[in-house]
């Protein structure tokens, strides 16, 4: 049964409904999605704005026109010790719908994101769009304040569709991303602005599924403009690969820099994150000797990359039960992540890896219960300068539509 929309003011001023202690951390639910005007089923991480400000997307809910709703972009602001939730945009099937990826600040200090479906393309439910969100020029003077939504590029056909993952930006203002599908296997794309319009260039197409059986789920970029991404299964390895895309005067060179073996873990999902030394850190969602996926590092050695298995996570051996989202660093260089179905209740968990010399020490920060605290965090965590950790779950919560959570040190 579809949940009825609640009055908007009851959504905007969401209260903390759950506080638990885990490993000297305080866990709180700071918003519970209702499936109404505030959205439902967030798959994406939240993005930090100014102090006490978060931005995010919810895959469903909002306006009708899509099965379960077309999704919502939202903002959360801390006020007098509580969090105020405000929708920024309600997606529609005609202009882009069902966002899966997080939003990110890019050229012009606008929020950029992708919608996996919708738009005017010839795909059955639309081929997806890249969009921007811009605040009102005079600021918001009411609690309910929508931003200006602009679909800057609409994918047109089955040759390139379903943009799912993180966007990245270079110093020249180009926007990079990926589509999960396109000729069956996905693409990497670049958007270049000229005046008020954007031109799309296909950086790479995963040809006939020889390069990647399942397409990439976003890209990340280093200081030299190289892109990094993962694919679940490839012709190089049935367990998945990490790729590097390097720009040159004649175009781009795309090569795998690591092909997973069975004990390394398999099926990487989240985009690797990069430290100041150019090392990549990422996860696999399955496998490893603990059965719950793995955390790994790749370090450049001049002629290639060294693979280091940082940790093998404990799980029930469920396929895709480990991490799906990106890792995150704190100011001390420690790593944080989430798992989809690991933890003592098989509902997902939040973990920390503390660097100690050449070793990493694992800590379980929180295990979701599939109750009011949420369930199944597809998204990775986000950490602010004070060490507070934020994230979303796709399910659970008192309405079963997911939550935004916070862990305070």
Quickly describe the structure.
With 409 residues, the chain is mostly beta strands.
Description:
By secondary structure, this protein is an all-beta fold. 1% of the residues lie in helices and 41% in strands. The chain has one helix spanning 8-12; strands at 19-22, 25-32, 47-48, 53-58, 72-79, 82-90, 104-105, 111-115, 129-134, 148-154, 168-169, 175-179, 187-194, 197-205, 220-221, 227-231, 241-248, 251-259, 273-274, 280-284, 291-300, 305-314, 328-329, 335-339, 349-356, 359-367, 382-383, 389-393, 403-408. The strands form seven sheets. The chain has a five-stranded antiparallel β-sheet, with no helix packed on it. The radius of gyration is 20 Å and the shape is globular. The chain starts with 7 loop residues before the first helix and ends with a strand. Residues 1-23 have low confidence and may be disordered.
Q: What is the averaged pLDDT score?
A: 90
Q: Regarding quaternary structure, how should these chains be classified?
A: single chain
Per DSSP, what share of the residues sits in E-state strands of 2 or more residues? 35-45%
The general outline is globular
Work out the radius of gyration: 20 Å
- Order of strands in the sheet with the most strands? 1-2-29-28-27
Summed up, the helix count is 1
Distance between the termini: 39 Å
Helix fraction bin = under 10%
Q: Uncertain spans, ≥5 residues at pLDDT below 50?
A: 1-23
Give the ordered list of helices and strands. Answer: HEEEEEEEEEEEEEEEEEEEEEEEEEEEEE
Write down how many β-strands occur, each being a DSSP E stretch of 2 or more residues: 29
Largest sheet, if any?
5 strands, antiparallel
Structural class by helix and strand composition: mainly beta
């Amino acid at each position: 049964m579809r949940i009825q929309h609640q009055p908007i003011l009851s959504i905007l001023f969401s209260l903390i409904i759950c506080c638990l202690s885990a490993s000297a951390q305080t866990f709180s639910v700071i918003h519970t999605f209702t499936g109404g005007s505030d959205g439902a089923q967030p798959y994406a991480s939240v993005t930090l704005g100014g102090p006490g400000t978060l931005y995010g997307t919810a895959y469903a809910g909002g306006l009708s026109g899509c099965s379960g709703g077309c999704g919502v972009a939202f903002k959360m602001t801390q006020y007098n010790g509580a969090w105020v939730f405000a929708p920024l945009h309600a997606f529609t099937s005609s202009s882009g719908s069902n966002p899966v990826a997080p939003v990110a600040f890019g050229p012009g200090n606008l929020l950029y994101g992708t919608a996996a479906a919708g738009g005017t393309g010839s795909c059955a439910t639309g081929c997806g769009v890249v969009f921007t969100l811009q605040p009102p020029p005079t600021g918001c003077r009411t609690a309910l304040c929508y931003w200006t939504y602009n679909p800057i590029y609409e994918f047109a056909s089955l040759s390139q569709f379903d943009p799912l993952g993180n966007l990245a930006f270079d110093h020249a203002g180009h926007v990079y991303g990926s589509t999960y599908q396109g000729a069956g296997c996905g693409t990497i794309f670049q958007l270049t602005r000229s005046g008020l319009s954007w031109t799309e260039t296909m950086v790479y197409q995963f040809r006939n599924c020889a390069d990647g059986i399942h397409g990439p789920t976003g890209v990340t970029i280093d200081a030299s403009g190289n892109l990094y991404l993962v694919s679940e299964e490839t012709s190089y390895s049935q367990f998945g690969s990490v790729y590097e895309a390097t720009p040159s005067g004649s175009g781009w060179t795309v090569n795998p820099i690591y092909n997973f073996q069975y004990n390394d873990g398999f099926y990487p999902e989240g985009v690797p994150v990069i430290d100041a030394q150019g090392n990549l850190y990422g996860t696999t969602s399955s496998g490893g000797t603990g059965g719950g996926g793995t955390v790994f590092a790749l370090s450049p050695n001049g002629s290639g990359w060294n693979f280091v298995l940082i940790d093998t996570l404990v799980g029930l051996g469920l396929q895709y039960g480990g991490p799906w989202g990106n890792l995150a660093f704190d100011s001390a260089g420690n790593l944080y992540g989430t798992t989809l179905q690991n933890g003592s209740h098989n509902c997902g968990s939040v973990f920390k890896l503390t660097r100690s010399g050449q070793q990493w020490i694992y800590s379980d920060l929180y295990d979701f219960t599939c109750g009011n605290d949420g369930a199944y965090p597809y998204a990775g965590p986000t950490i602010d300068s004070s060490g507070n950790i934020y994230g979303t779950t796709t399910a659970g919560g008192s309405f079963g539509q997911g939550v935004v959570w916070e862990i305070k040190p």
